[in-house]
Amino acid sequence: MVSELPNAVVAAPTITNILSTHPRDAPALVGRDGAVSYGRLVELVDRRLGELGLASRTVVVLAGTNTVDFVVTYLALLAGNHVPLLSAPGAPARRLAESWPAAAVVNIGADGALDVDRPATVRTEPCAEQPLHPDLALLLATSGSTGSPKLVRLSHRNLISNAVSIVDYLGLVPTDRGITSLPLHYCYGLSVLHAHLVAGASVVVTEASVVDPCFRDALVRERVTNLAGVPHTFDMLERSGPEAVLVPSMRFLTQAGGRLAPDAVARWVGRANERGIDMYVMYGQTEATARMAYLPPDLAARLPGAIGVAVPGGDLRIEPVEDAPVGVGELVYRGDNVMMGYAHDMADLARGAELTELRTGDLARFHADEQVFEIVGRRARFVKPFGVRIDLDSVEHELTRRFGTAVGVTGDDHGLQLVASGPTDDEVVDAVRSLTGLPVGSVGVRTDVEIPRTPSGKIDHEAVRGLVTSSPATASPSSAGDSADRVSRIIDAFEVTLGRTVRVQNRSDTVDSASFTSLGGDSLSYVECSFRLEAVLGPLPADWHLRSIAELAATTPPSPRSFARVDTTIVLRALAICLVVATHMHVRYVPGGAHLLLAVAGYNLARFAIPIEPVAERVRAGLRTVARAAVPVVAWVGTGMVVFGSYGVGTLLLVNNYVGPRSHAGPHWHFWFIEVFVHLVLLTTALLAVPAIRSIERRWQYVFPLVLLAIALLARMEWAWMGDWYNLRYRTHGIAFFFVLGWLVCASRTSWLRTATTAICLAVVPGFFQYAPREWFIATSLVVLLWAREVPFPRVLLRPVHLLAAASMWIYVSHFTLWPLFTGLFVREVAYVLTIGAGVGVWAVTTLPARWLRDSSRRRPLRSSADR
C-alpha cells in the first residue's frame, strides 16, 4: 500500500490513492523490461519515496524522459504530498531550478539512475510566510513562459476531475492500453497517463518517436489501443506513412495541442474509419489540466474544423468581445479542472484556488445547429508551433530586456519570425531556443534591417513577418553556411539517385517534408543514396529513409568507431552479387545469390513502395522501380542483339523465361532474374491499386503476405511445372514465393511474428532446389535479415560494400559479357576481381550522363520553414 502521506491534507481522491483500488496483478505500465502490475507499481512507488529522502513537504523539479522510472518517481512525489514541477531534462530543468530556489531537483537518467540534487541555494523548509497551500499538487510551466517562468498551479481535484472526464468521453476500460507518444512533462502527455491509471488500464512507456520503427513494433507487440498526438505528430506520420500507427489493435486516436488543419483531420478520420478506428479531435490548455472540449468521432468527418463540445463536468460559453464579428467572442470554460491560478514567485504557492472559470484567449463561435464550438482565432498573440504554446508578447519582452534593444517577434503555428538590430543571428536564435525550446529550423531571424513600426510607433508585426519571409537567409544554426551546404548536398544525393529534381516553386515546405520514401525511393536507389548521404552526414540513423531533408541536415553524426551498424539488406546485396558472379565464373560454386536478391527485393518493396499513399503515388513509385531495372537491361540486350546477335526478342521484351528455349546453352536465360523482378513488381503494384485489396492489406499487414505466400507455394507444385521442373526455378510463378517471403520478413514486427516467419523460412525453402547448400544459404540469410535489420560491420569495408550493393544490378547485367573477356587474359581469380570492378565501372559510367544533365540544369529554390 502507498505510504501514508506526511502532512496529508488532501481530502479528495488522488492519483496515487486510486492505484491500490485496481487488481494487483493487472498491468499498469509496460516498459523495456516488461510489464509492471498495479501491485508492483505501488511497491515501487513506496520504495522510491524512501529513496528520495525528502523529509519535509517541498517543491521538487523532476526532470527526465519517458521511462518507467520517471513515472514511478512522479507518483512517489505525489504519494509523499510533495509538489512536483515537471520538466524536460537539461537546460529547461536548470532554468526552472534557478527560478524557483525553494525546489530540490531530481533527475532521472535514461538508465533509470536517480540523482537528487540539493544545491546550497535550496531551502529544505519553506518559510512560514511562504508555505505550500494544502491543495497544491502539481506545478507545470506554461509553454510560453520566458525569463522567470510562470507556473500553472494544479490541485489533486484538478488532476482527478480531468482524468475522470477523459475516461468518461473516451470510454476507457481496464483492457485499454495507451502509449507515451508525447513527453510526460507536457500536460497532454501527462493526462494520458493519469486517465489510464484512473481507469485501471495500462500505458506502454517508450522514448521512441512515432516514426521510429521501434515505436510501431511496440504498438503491434503490446496491442496498443489508443494513441495521442499533437499536429506535429500527425504531420510526421503523414510524411513517413500513416499506416505505421493504424495497427489492428488500435481503437481510437486523439489529437490536441494545437489546431490540426481541417483537411488533415478529414484525411485522418477517413483512414481511421476504414479500419474501424475512432478519431477524437480535442481542445485544451495547461490551465485546464489538459482538456476542455472534444469532437465526437461521428461529427469529425462532417465538421473537421470544430473543437466540439465541453468535456463531461465542464461548460463552455462565448463571452462577447468588442469589435469581433457577429457570433464571435472569447471562449470561456468552467469546470473542476480549471487551475488554482498562476504562480509568479514563491509567495503564490501559498495561495488557494482563485479561479472558477478560465478565459482561454481564443476567439470562437457556436454552431447552434450541431451544438458544437469552433475556434476562429486568438484574442492575444499566442501561437502553437509543434504543440508548444508561445506567448509572442512575452518572448518579445524578454528578448528586448536581454539584449537591451527592441526585438520584433511574430509567428504562427509553424514557427517564429524575428527582426532585431544589435545582436547577431546566432545570438537571437540561441536566445529563442533557450526560452521556448523550439528547434532551430522553426525560427527565422533578420538582424540586417531596422525594426518596422506603425505610425503610432508600435512594432509592425505584419511587416516583421514580411521581412523575414523575404529574407534570403534566415533561421540558421550557428553554422549557417555548413547547414545550408548540408541541405544542398543532401538534395544532390536525392536528385542523383532518384533521377528527379527535388524542387518546388513558391512553396517553403519541401525541405521540411520531403524524404527518401516520400520522393519515391526504392530498393534500387536505397543503397546508393545511403552511400552518398554517409559521405555528407557520417553514419546514418536506421530510419534515415523516413526523415525529411531538414531532419537529416540536423542529424548529429555519432563519434566514429571501428565498427558501424549497416543495413542488413546492403550487406546481403553485396554478398549475393559476389556469389552470383563467383558461381557463374566457376571461381567458387555457391549458388542461390540471385534468389536471395529476389527475396531482398520483396523486403524492400514492402519497406519503401507498398506503404505509400495515395494510390497514384504508389503506382508511380512501382513504375519507377520497374523502369530503373527494365530500361538499362533492354538497352543492354538491344545493343547485344545489334552488335553480337547474342539475344532474342523474348529476352529483349523480358519474357524469355516463358517463351524462350528450354535449353540453357546460350545467353537467352541470362536475365531471368530481371524478368522475374519486373513481373512481380508490376503484379504487386497492380494488385494493391485495387482499393478493396489495399484496404485488406492495410488491416492485415502480416496475414496478407502470408496468404500470398500460400498461393505462391501452390504455384511451384508439379501442376505448374509446365513440363519443365528444372526451369521452374527461373520462372516468375515458380519462384514468386522468395519475393513474398521477403515481404513477410518485412511485415514481421514482433518477436512472435519473427518466430513464426523463421519457422516458415526453414520449412518452405529447403527441398525446392534439391541442393541443400543452396537452400540453407538462402534460408539462413533470410533469418538473419528477420532478426537483425542492421548488422555490425568493419568501418574500413563500408565503402566497398556500399559500392558493390549500389552497383549490384549492373554487375549482374554486365558480368555475362565481361567475364569471358577477362578469363581469356588472366587467371580466373584475377578475372573475377576485374569483372566485379568493371561492373562497378559500368554502373558509374551509365549513370553519369543523367547526373550531368541534372547537375547542369539544377536550380535551388528550396527553402525550409526557417527561410520564410
Element layout with pairings:
Blueprint: H1 15-19, E1 27-31, E2 34-37, H2 38-52, E3 59-63, H3 68-79, E4 83-87, H4 91-99, E5 104-108, E6 114-117, E7 136-141, E8 151-155, H5 156-170, E9 177-179, H6 187-199, E10 202-204, H7 213-221, E11 226-229, H8 231-240, E12 252-255, H9 262-274, E13 278-283, E14 293-295, H10 297-300, E15 309-310, E16 314-320, E17 328-335, E18 341-343, E19 357-367, E20 372-378, E21 382-383, E22 390-391, H11 392-403, E23 407-412, E24 415-420, H12 425-436, E25 443-446, H13 461-470, H14 480-498, H15 510-513, H16 523-537, H17 549-553, E26 563-567, H18 568-584, H19 593-608, H20 615-643, H21 649-652, H22 656-659, H23 672-688, H24 691-699, H25 703-714, H26 732-747, H27 751-764, H28 772-787, E27 790-794, H29 798-806, H30 808-823, H31 828-857
Parallel strand pairs: 1-10, 3-4, 3-5, 4-7, 9-10, 11-12, 12-13, 24-25
Antiparallel strand pairs: 1-2, 5-6, 7-8, 8-18, 13-14, 14-15, 16-17, 17-19, 19-20, 21-22, 23-24, 26-27
Helix pairs in contact: 2-3, 5-6, 14-16, 16-29, 18-19, 18-29, 18-30, 19-23, 19-26, 20-23, 20-30, 23-26, 25-26, 26-27, 26-28, 27-28, 30-31
In the CATH scheme, the class of the largest domain would be: Alpha Beta
Determine Rg (CA atoms, Å): 31 Å
CATH topology of the largest domain: Rossmann fold
How many structural domains in the coordinates? 4
Helix content: 40-55%
Label the overall shape.
Answer: elongated
Mind summarizing the main beta sheet? 7 strands, mixed
- Count of extended strands: 27
- Strands side by side in the biggest sheet: 6-5-3-4-7-8-18
Name of the CATH superfamily of the largest domain: ANL, N-terminal domain
What is the CATH architecture descriptor of the largest domain?
A: 3-Layer(aba) Sandwich
- Low-pLDDT residue intervals, each spanning 5 or more residues: 1-11, 120-129, 471-481, 504-509, 853-868
Number of DSSP helices? 31
Strand content: 5-15%
The pLDDT mean sits at 82
Derived structural class: alpha/beta
What's the N-to-C terminus distance?
56 Å
